[in-house]
Write a structure and sequence with these properties.
Blueprint lengths: L1 E8 L12 H16 L4 E7 L5 E9 L5 H8 L17 E6 L8 H4 L7 E10 L5 H16 L5 E6 L4 E4 L2 E12 L2 H8 L2 H6 L1 H4 L6 E11 L1
Antiparallel strand pairs: 1-3, 1-4, 2-3, 2-9, 5-8, 5-9, 6-8, 7-8
Length: 222
C-alpha cells in the first residue's frame, strides 16, 4: 500500500481544531471523497503544533496508489487544486507518495492505536541528485535500536517515490519518518535522554542532508 502525504502551507490563523473553520471543512470534504471515490483505506489530517501554518494529510491509497494508472490520473488532475483556497499568499502544497516500512499501513502512528496521542512527522530533504542512499540508510538504521529503547509506540519510514519540490524550482529527494507517541512530553523526555544525545549525530552528520523538518501533529481521522 502507498500512503499519500500532503503538506499544506496554510493561511495565517488557520484552525483545524475549529469544526466550523473553512480549512477543516475543506480538508474533510477532500479526504471524504478519497475514501468513497478512490477506495482509500484510511484518511487523517492534522496541524503542526510548533508551526500551525503547516498541516498534513495522510491517505492510504492501497494498490491504486502504485503504478501507471495512478501516474495517469495525476496527469489528468491537479491534486493541489482542492486545497488552493486554503494556502497562504505565496505558499504552496506538496503531495508525496511514500511506501512506508516496516508495514505499509501507517495508521497506528496517526492515531489508530489506543495509546498514540501525538504524531511526530520528520522530513529529511536531500539533493535531487543524491547518490548515497545506502549511506543514508546506514545512518538511519543506527538510530533504530535507540528508538526501540524510547517511549515511541510505533515508527514508520520510507522514501518519497518522486522527487519533491519544496521551494519553487528546487527539487529534492525526501525521506519521511512518522512516529507515534503518547504525548509531546514523552518525545521530549527522549530528546533529553543521554541515549538520544549520544546517538543523534548519526542523523545530523548525514552527508548531503540539507534540511530536516520536525513537527508534532495532533491527527484527526475520518
Amino acid at each position: 500500500m502507498i500512503t499519500e502525504v500532503t503538506v499544506l502551507q496554510l493561511q495565517e490563523d488557520s484552525d483545524l481544531q475549529n469544526p466550523e473553520s473553512l480549512e477543516r471543512k475543506t480538508i474533510r470534504d477532500v479526504l471524504s471523497r478519497k475514501l468513497h471515490e478512490e477506495s482509500a483505506s484510511f484518511a487523517y489530517y492534522g496541524q503542526s503544533i510548533e508551526h500551525p501554518e503547516t498541516a498534513f494529510t495522510f491517505v492510504g491509497l492501497g494498490a491504486s496508489g502504485d503504478g501507471e494508472d495512478f501516474e495517469g490520473s495525476l496527469a489528468n488532475q491537479d491534486p493541489i487544486a482542492p486545497f488552493q483556497d486554503l494556502l497562504g499568499a505565496g505558499k504552496a502544497a506538496t503531495v508525496m507518495r511514500v511506501h512506508f516500512q516496516p508495514t505499509s499501513d501507517t495508521s497506528p502512528a496517526l492515531g489508530n492505536h489506543a495509546s498514540v496521542g501525538v504524531t511526530e512527522v520528520v522530513l529529511y530533504h536531500f539533493p535531487s541528485d543524491l547518490s548515497n542512499k545506502e549511506e543514508v540508510m546506514e545512518s538511519i538504521d543506527k538510530m533504530r535500536p535507540v528508538l526501540a529503547r524510547s517511549e515511541a509506540l510505533v515508527c514508520f519510514d520510507g522514501w518519497v517515490m518522486e522527487q519533491t519540490t519544496k521551494n519553487v524550482g528546487e527539487k529534492s529527494q525526501v525521506y519521511v519518518n512518522v512516529l507515534g507517541w503518547v504525548d509531546v512530553d514523552a518525545h521530549m523526555r527522549f530528546q533529553d535522554s543521554d541515549d538520544f544525545k549520544q546517538n543523534i549525530h548519526h542523523l545530523m552528520d548525514i552527508r548531503e542532508l540539507r534540511l530536516l523538518e520536525m513537527h508534532h501533529v495532533k491527527m484527526h481521522a475520518l
